[in-house]
């Protein structure tokens, strides 16, 4: 999640629990403490390009580390004489603020090692995007009013709203998964595995990704809060497994190790970039909606004895157009890319009176799903 939201959530929780003992200091302590877990971004290596992704959202984000992190976060206040009389509420506020970080991160798509060191499993519930203005604005209003009025109630009210909003995200995810299942069935695909990811800034438009055979199928699904889901077909790429590496790559234990690390990081959603087959990308993320252009990935050089793995990061290539994003969220965007003529689309689904292809809504007898145009803006 973005740093501002982390700080606001930490502040809101600390205000709710400790504003009576600490006054306005509670919000500040909670906000600062909530930012501390991301100090793991400092862990990196010039010789190991995957070290950063391996440790980010690692031990500093684990549930077991929360008491330690909370104590470290409280030290700047405890070391000052003026705060020593509050030796109980200050660590309490810091620990609560610190704890919110990992919990919130686990609700996004990136993956968080909540159960380190007992498990390296990366928890990613996909309930909320890494940036969500509604969630952040609610926290901002609550924290600001709580500080202005010197009362915990506005912060508590904001937390109640945010919990309800996260619950809505969970429901939206389940609805999007249901739509994904029907999409796969409409193409005659047997879905082996599937997931949906909220797109930036909302819980209405989802990136659908499912495995059928050896192919990863990506589609775009819009799930209104009320009414049936709409969708537009995207693209399909071949999944890459360790056995798909070149003989030279499979013969290099360093490359095999790094492929396994990247596959673990991307939760197995690995595919070659169509525009550059040397890049193995994380299929959960794409720079555009109608094709697979990985945001990040790896390139292997088994013939390089010093650095066989290259980290490819294209996050700076993102071109987020707010007008296009808003058009997609509201369902008014026009889609002119090649996905409108994707194989199997024309002739397989009925057409609406307006001429747009539609998808039968099996959850609502007689209803039809109108194909949603989608602009070319980054999916994450």
Which features does this protein show?
380 residues, alpha+beta, 2 domains, 4-stranded antiparallel sheet, 10 helices, 38% helix, globular, disordered C terminus
- How many DSSP H or I helices? 10
- Rg from Cα: 23 Å
Tell me the helix content: 25-40%
- Gap from first CA to last CA: 12 Å
Number of strands: 10
Largest sheet: 4 strands, antiparallel
The percentage of residues in β strands lies in 15-25%
The shape, in one word, is globular
Structural domain count = 2
Name the helix and strand elements from N-terminus to C-terminus, one letter apiece: HHHHHHHEEEEHHEEEEHEE
pLDDT < 50 runs, ≥5 residues? 334-380
Mean of residue pLDDT values: 86
**Category from helices, strands and their pairing:** alpha+beta
Placed side by side, the strands forming the largest sheet appear as 1-2-3-4
What topology does this entry show?
Elements: H1 3-22, H2 25-35, H3 51-55, H4 66-78, H5 89-105, H6 133-149, H7 153-186, E1 193-198, E2 205-212, E3 215-222, E4 230-238, H8 247-250, H9 253-265, E5 270-273, E6 276-282, E7 296-300, E8 309-313, H10 322-330, E9 358-360, E10 368-370
Antiparallel strand pairs: 1-2, 2-3, 3-4, 5-6, 6-7, 7-8, 9-10
Helix pairs in contact: 1-2, 1-5, 1-6, 1-7, 2-5, 4-5, 6-7
